[in-house]
Amino acid sequence: MKNTNSKTFKTGLIGTVAMTLVVSIGVVFSNKVLANSTTPKYQVGSVVRIADYAYSETNGYTLTNRHSWVGTVVSVTRKAYSNSVWVYKIQYPNGWHNDYVAEQDVTNIRNSHYNVGSVVKIANNAYSETNGYTLTNHHKELH
């Protein structure tokens, strides 16, 4: 029994073993991540994509509005955060940037489904291009 602030807590053998196991796994995982991360996955100049599951930068700014954005790595800093050891500053073609993106939130760019010269139809639910131009007047045309 352990008495803390006049409240009594019972810790049985199973609870102690479970707590020790959780702490041990966390330490092993943390050391494994640090040991396997002596070099960053991406270098300055790499073109990368913000993962669809990315939630926030290491400083708390949201990344949910940047899912699938493609940008260029402009700096790499060693900083342990969650499941990452590297943090990237990413610059986007539109001039915007994210300064503290954990490595776990960055992925490679998917291969394109189309090649230059392919004929495609604009989907009926397509609203606009990434630059804001409307696509609603192109729904029935082949391009």
Could you explain the architecture of this structure?
A hairpin with a 2-residue loop joins strand 1 (2-4) and strand 2 (7-9). This protein is 16% helix and 27% strand. The strands form two sheets. A five-stranded antiparallel β-sheet has the order 6-5-4-3-7, with no helix packed on it. A two-stranded antiparallel sheet has the order 1-2. The chain folds into two domains: 2-35; 40-135, SH3 type barrels (Roll). The chain is of the alpha+beta class. It has one helix and seven strands; from the N terminus they run E-E-H-E-E-E-E-E.
Task: Set out the fold topology.
Blueprint: E1 2-4, E2 7-9, H1 13-35, E3 47-50, E4 70-81, E5 84-91, E6 97-102, E7 106-107
Antiparallel strand pairs: 1-2, 3-4, 3-7, 4-5, 5-6
Share of helical residues:
10-25%
Number of strands: 7
Provide the number of structural domains: 2
Q: So how many helices?
A: 1
Name of the top-level CATH class of the largest domain: Mainly Beta
**Major sheet: size, sense and barrel closure?**
5 strands, antiparallel
Low-confidence stretches: 1-9, 16-33
What spatial order of strands do you see in the largest sheet? 6-5-4-3-7
In the CATH hierarchy, what is the architecture of the largest domain at level 2?
Roll
Enter the CATH topology name of the largest domain. SH3 type barrels
The shape is elongated
Q: Give the overall average pLDDT.
A: 80
* Radius of gyration using CA atoms only: 23 Å
What separation lies between the terminal Cα atoms?
A: 74 Å
